[in-house]
Amino acid sequence: MTNFNKEKTTEYLLKFCYNCEDACTCDTEEKCRECWAQQGLLEGQEQDETQYYLDQVHA
Fold first, then answer.
1. Phi, psi dihedral angles at 21 (to 5 degrees)
2. For residues 50 and 44, what is the distance between their CA atoms, to the nearest angstrom?
3. What is the CA radius of gyration of the chain?
4. Which one of 18, 36, 43, 56 is most buried, counting C-beta atoms within 10 A?
5. CA gap 18, 32 in Å, rounded
6. How many of the other CB atoms lie within 10 Å of CB of 36?
7. For residue 39, what pLDDT is reported?
8. Which pLDDT tens digit goes with each residue over 8-56?
9. Which pTM does this prediction carry?
């Protein structure tokens, strides 16, 4: 798994989970981290530039 900055957990929850339809299934921090990693949302992961900007618009 990607190195995870614990100080950013709240920021990630607000940014990635607030509008997520499946947020109710992530009842632990570990499940949230797994979800973010699967979606390529954690910092430090290589991501397509176009997809990055689309994610920023729709976040």
1. -70, -25
2. 16
3. 11
4. 36
5. 12
6. 22
7. 82
8. 777 778 878 888 888 888 888 888 888 888 887 776 655 566 777 777 7
9. 0.55
Sole residue written with tokens 């957990």: 9
Burial class from Cβ neighbours inside 10 Å (0-12, 13-18, 19+) for residue 13 reads middle
As given in the structure block, the two tokens for residue 49 are: 């530039």
What is the rounded CA–CA span in Å between residue 19 and residue 40? 17
What length is written for the chain?
59
Using alpha carbons only, what angle is made at residue 47 by residues 22 and 11, rounded to the nearest 5 degrees? 50
pLDDT of residue 1: 43
Q: Which two tokens stand for residue 4?
A: 């995870």
Instruction: Give me the residue label for tokens 């949230």.
Output: 32
